[in-house]
Amino acid sequence: MRRLLILSLLCCSQLFMLNGCVSKPVLQTDAGLFHDELFTAPAEPVSAETVFKLNPAMQQFLDREIRKQSRIHSDQRALYMALYDEGKLRLRYDSSYTRNASDTFDTRSGNCLSLVIMTAAFAKQMGLKTTYQKVFLEEEWSRAGELYFSSEHVNIVLGQRKLAMTIDNTGSEPMIVDFLQRGEAANLRSIEIDENTIIAMFMNNRAAEALARNDYHQAYWWVRAAINADNQFAAAYNTLGVIYMKLNQAEPAYRALTAALALNPKSLVTMSNMVQTLNGLDRVAEANELSQRMFDEQPHPPFHFFQLGLAAMNRNDYAAAKSLFKRELKRAPDYHEFHFWLGLAHFRLGEIADAEKELNLAKQNSSNQKDLALYAAKLNYLNARR
Known about the structure:
This protein is α/β, with parallel strands linked by helices. It is built from 16 helices and seven strands.
């Protein structure tokens, strides 16, 4: 079977697990982890300087729209209303690219991390206190070829953080800004994270997105910067390990993944990559032991039934494929690609109405414009056939 490399992203992409009161080892980032000599110079600038920077259009929006609301409401309420309540920006969710503040504003789109960064940029300019949160939602998965992405969620709180978090639409109480429904975000368990971690998340996402384009050199410089921004961010070490794996550099990959596991020993994402690395180093017994540990924790990992379904499609066993795709959808009912392949299985079986239903669900659940256009074209083709 083709190897699967797993990355962590925010919304957003994998991310990492933060374990409240557990102290973490302090890692030395110069301990043989970086190998600049393997990579060409970055084709695009890699810097934290532009992450929260306002462009002239943003400054104008702040002066004309947000300040106008500040004469009537609290500053955090004014910012929230100008950005979201009145729908002036009409932001749309787009998982394809993690944007900085100005790009998010200009394109009116982004993932949850992009939204947090843009909101924070305005809040900083207004002198508002900002608190970043990692939110504990059910882990989401996606893929690009042999790369698999585990995604987690972040949001931002405007104003003073309190133990009993509420949303106040009139006064100076804390306000949560989130892509989730307004009442939903306030009721979810979350932990506070530092701004340096937000910057590391941004850079790690950029690295993962470069990897998906097979741009290993740009990916390396982004993830290197992510580790320098926050050397306790486990997901970045995992991404660094995957970059080395793609270049068949097993020893550097092993060191990077070892660092990731030191920070997050329970990460099945990193364990999966480590199994492949250990096999590449001919440390088969260790790989088998770690594989068994993973199987004990999770006998059927994400995409397990999906992969079996693809194999069934390849041997023209469409009934088996349909059953397997349905099993995967029970675990992730909103993932667009599962609906697409189930629709294709229905189509091969001559079940045209069911195929159309699944393609519509794939279109509704698509998280970027590219997938949306693809599923729309498939639906048009299906309608033409009908």
